[in-house]
Design brief:
This protein is about 40% helix and about 15% strand. With about 350 residues, it is α/β, with parallel strands linked by helices. Helix 6 links the parallel strand 3 and strand 4. The chain binds pyridoxal-5'-phosphate. It holds the Pfam family Aminotran_1_2.
Length: about 350
């Protein structure tokens, strides 16, 4: 009865709700550093806007065009509003892109390892996915990615900075790569973590959008803006492709409250900057820690670190017993840890040293 590609899938295992976990572990508080959420919260202006929201609007369908949010994001990224597509989280944009472009016989290229949603949706659409391994420093191997293109290649996913390795490739390197990509192959740059890089102008691919009609840049409000619960992500795309994606999108995929939250969060650039400053400081501090204690790790440009941890599953369990959830299962004996508040980082690093008796 099931479509063949779906019968082979395993359901996504969601994070256990924190209250449930706290009860199970007998702890008063558990800190989740496994999902790259913002440890500094969300702009207080969002809370105010939600309180001021007119509840009598509840019975109306939301603005299906997300006009106000669309205009605000268009101003922010400096493109025409028609070139934006909004999704119920960037997850939905990834699904929409896969649904719109992929059919049986197509091939998808991605980095290995990278964000798992690209492969999931490519598999549902019955296409073949090929992983191009990252280099020994964790960064994307763009020449290898270009060399892997075949006549069947339809989409190329490039997560930058890459989840889980945390490393980033420069816009100049992407420009060089794009020059080798045939026009009928669509390149998707997932910039979910772009807010955190050391120098935005060096890394974002946004300036390339005017030069290529086969390039899209994807962003989300879930990470740096601390809005994961509201599910808002977007793509900036070539003008020609926008109408097709809009036809595949569900008409009311974004609620009014989500639109309002995202628009308000975007307007509070001070909050964003304070988050980014704190994340950069945590990044330096984690890097120094890992270096000092001889861990193998990649140079992160994101809000998390990916490092080799002997006995990673045991360490993760030890950290959980002490109130910290970290991400396992991305590569054997490697862990991905989201940077927390400076207090949390200190505590976590102490626990890691205690586990290894360093
Ligand atoms: C978190 C994440 C997303 C999904 O973000 P949502 O907007 O919350 O759906 C997309 N891409 C990458 C690389 C991510 O890490």
């Amino acid at each position: 009865m099931l479509k063949k590609t779906v019968s082979q899938l395993q359901p996504y295992v969601p994070e256990t709700p924190l209250p449930e976990l706290e009860k199970k572990l007998g702890l008063t508080s558990v800190v989740r550093l496994s999902a790259n959420e913002n440890p500094f919260g969300t702009s207080p202006q969002v809370q105010q806007a939600l309180q001021d929201w007119d509840f009598s609007n509840s019975r109306y369908y939301p603005d299906g065009d997300a006009s106000a949010l669309r205009q605000a994001v268009a101003d922010y990224v400096k493109v025409a509003p028609e070139r934006l597509l909004f999704g119920n989280g960037l997850d939905e944009v990834i699904e929409l892109v896969s649904r719109t472009f992929l059919e049986n016989g197509d091939e998808v290229l991605e980095l290995g390892p990278t964000f798992s949603e690209y492969k999931l949706h490519a598999q549902i659409e019955d296409t073949i996915v090929r992983d191009v391994p990252v280099q020994s420093d964790g960064s994307a191997d763009l020449p290898a990615l270009a060399a892997a293109i075949t006549a069947q290649t339809k989409l190329i996913w490039l997560c930058n900075p890459n989840n889980p390795t945390g490393t980033a490739v420069t816009c100049a390197a992407i420009a060089k790569f794009m020059a080798q990509v045939p026009q009928n192959v669509l390149v998707l740059i997932d910039e979910a973590y772009m807010d955190f890089v050391d120098d935005l102008a060096t890394y974002t691919a946004l300036p390339l959008l005017n030069d290529y009609s086969n390039l899209m840049v994807l962003r989300t409000f879930s990470k740096a803006y601390g809005l994961a619960n509201f599910r808002v992500g977007y793509a900036v795309m070539p003008p020609k492709l926008a109408p097709s994606l809009q036809s595949v999108r569900l008409p009311y995929n974004l609620g009014a409250v989500a639109q309002l939250a995202a628009q308000t969060a975007l307007a509070d650039q001070d909050f964003l900057q304070s988050t980014v400053t704190r994340v950069k400081k945590a990044r330096q501090q984690w890097q120094a820690f890992l270096q000092q204690h001889d861990f193998t790790f990649y140079r992160s440009q994101a809000n998390f670190t990916f490092f080799q941890a002997p006995n990673a599953l045991k360490l993760a369990d030890y950290l959980l017993q002490h109130g910290f959830i970290v991400r396992t299962g991305l590569r054997p004996d490697w862990l991905r840890i989201t940077f927390g508040t400076s207090e949390q980082n200190t505590q976590l690093q102490r626990l890691i040293l205690a586990f290894y008796q360093k």
